Every structure is written in structure tokens, then in C-alpha cells.
Amino acid sequence: MSCFKNITVGEMCVWRNEIIRFDPDSSPLVWTHYRTIYEGRIEGYDFSHLSFYIRYSEFGDLNRCFCGERNIWLNYIDLPSPDSRDYNRLFALKDDTVRIEKEGVTYIEPAYRYGGECDFNFNEKKYKLFKEIIGGDAYALDRLEKCRAKHHTLINFSLMQALGNMQKVKGKAPFDRPDVFIHKLNQYFEGSSDAVVCSAGRNREFLEIYLHGFRNIYDYCEKIYFIDSKEFVDEIIRQGALPIAGCRDVIRYMDLADEFWRRKRIKIEEIYRKRS
User: Fold this and answer.
1) What is the pLDDT of residues 83-95, one digit of tens each?
2) Beta partners for residue 100, in sequence order
3) What is the tens place of the pLDDT at every residue in 200-212?
4) Which domain of life is it from (predicted)?
5) Which of 8, 46, 89, 221 is the most buried (most CB within 10 A)?
6) Partners of residue 8 on adjacent β-strands
């Protein structure tokens, strides 16, 4: 019987017979988990054929490739970064994405693609910031250590559409907060703000097409985060409008993270049991 285990994911992983450094939320190991929980939930993406997605200009000896049939340039390459110090990411591309094999290299058009993302950011940088705000509160510091330990675990990873740069929208908010991101995304769905699509550049139209595939913020949170409680999504949105300035704010935020992980885990465990 297959059961969910909330393992911690490291950086180094074997891919195509090579040991490669990965961003843990988008590594081959994590994609095994993503396939289990997202296949059938997210349709139209190739979960069985994962790709790197690196611009050709990163490789000094490779040029882009032209597709005459579609009259488009294929500017991205399915190879890991040439710099071994970089953190690589694997993506699930849309089923109809144009790929061309040329001289042993796979070229890819600009494409809708899902990649991994940490939900709540308790990495070393954010940990130090939270610790400074908390000060000497022993209870809060103990809670912070527990949250820090979950940063690179499966329960804290979800997929996010990479075309349109929503990761930047989430990441540029103080502390890289998912509640702030969901608050902004809800404003977009309600038509009161377009902040969530403002970093998309020339891909804004394509990001908006993607977002219009969801009925509302509740549909998005159910499909992407496995959160199906309207009341809890409303609470996430409410807290996304609040600042984190003092110890009590950090405790409130960690309470939100724990409840988010608890609810998400229940749904993921159900999926693992059904697929066993």
C-alpha cells in the first residue's frame, strides 16, 4: 500500500545518468510526488516527459532553432545549466508545446509550463528575518524551528504556472508569503487589481488566458493547493492583507502555515490511498 511520507528533499539528484544540482521543489524526486497528486487534476500537461527550460543564450555554442511550420523561434533548450553551481528546475510542458530535436539537442518554444514552488518560505534568509522580529520569545522561536524544518519537505511544495512570472509576484512580497499572493490573486479574480499579472511582460495575455481557466480563487486553491474550504481560503485572503511587524504577527503566520499544511496533508493522503 502506497502512503504519503513528508520527506525532506535535498539538492543533488540523478537525472539522465548525471548527478545534477536541483532546486528541491522542482527536482526529479519531487516530480514523482507531483505526478501522484496532480495527474487527473491538472489536464493538458505532459507529466511523463519533463524538461529543463533554459534560454539558448546561456549556452555559448548553441543557437536558437526556427520552426518553419509554425513560423516561430524555439529559444529554449532541454538541457541543464552549463554552470554546475546553478540550481536546475524541471517543468511539465503543455501537451501541444513544439519541440524540435536537432543534432542531439531538444529546442522548445516559449511555453505554458508547470514548475514547483515552496508554499511558505522558511529558508535561511527568511528564518533570520523572522527570528529577528520574534526576539527572545521562546515559544515563538520553538515554533519557528519547526516551520524551518518543513521548508524543503513535500507538504510545502505545490505546482505553479511559470509562464507569466507569478513566482516573481509571490517572491517580491515581504517574506515571500503565500497569503499575500492568494490575496492578490483574489483581487485579480474579483477585478479590483491586476497586480498579479503585472510582472508577466509580453506574456501577460497568455497568463490571463491561463487564469481564466479557473472559476475563482476557491477553484484555484482547490486545484493547486488542495485547499477546499471556502472559509479557510477567506481566512488566507484576510491575513494576506495584514503586515508582519511583531512577534504576534509571526505566530499568527505560523498558525496559518500549520493549518494550511494540515488541511493539505489530509487531501494528499487521500490521493495516495486511492492510487495505491
Assistant:
1) 999 999 999 999 9
2) 107
3) 999 999 999 999 9
4) Bacteria
5) 221
6) 153
